[in-house]
Specification:
Helices cover 31% and strands 26% of the residues. The chain has helices spanning 37-44, 66-72, 98-107, 124-137, 154-171, 182-188, and strands at residues 4-11, 14-21, 26-31, 51-56, 59-60, 73-76, 142-146, 175-178, 191-196, 199-202. It starts with a strand and ends in a 5-residue tail after the last strand.
Amino acid sequence: MAELRLEHLSVGAVKSASITIASAEILCLSGRSGSGKSRLLRAVADLEPHGGRIWLGGTEQTTVPGHIWRRQVMMVPADSQWWADRVGEHFTVTDLSAATLNAGLDQLGLDRDVMHWPVSRLSSGEKQRLALLRAVARKPSALLLDEPTANLDSEAVARVEAWLQREIVARQLPVIWVAHDRQQITRVGDRHLAIRGSAVEVVDGSH
């Protein structure tokens, strides 16, 4: 239950962005294509060189090795990575119980047998939902979501939004959620910021 804090973050075109995301808060981030949304997420995940300081609770990013930071501040990119042949090889037995796994699969509209499938059998939408489940299963302390519903139809979008909102509240995760759809931002966002030129600005109507 720690807040995520960016102090004078500079990466790409963005200069000196200072943002605090509270526990269980979803901060939606929008901006034109190429404005630097994904680069900002990558900087927060310690995957991109950047200026400024980033904190998770009382821990500063630079004080821990990158791979340890990324276990806590978990980024789910728009295109998920799969390094083994079968889906189940990407989930360890310590990640979550069978009951919790099945509940997540059901809520996300996925077949319970999917863990036995080869990754090559998955559609882009199935990969996207499984990448989200995989990230949450690893018990991070913060989430960075890069357009997590981009490849999904409307029914799957509704399922993913509802599941993520439940998990974020239950686990008290601070979240940066990159989104373009204004309706989605209204549904899920506690605040809405947009990258405009070199600044990250509050969007009118944010709550």
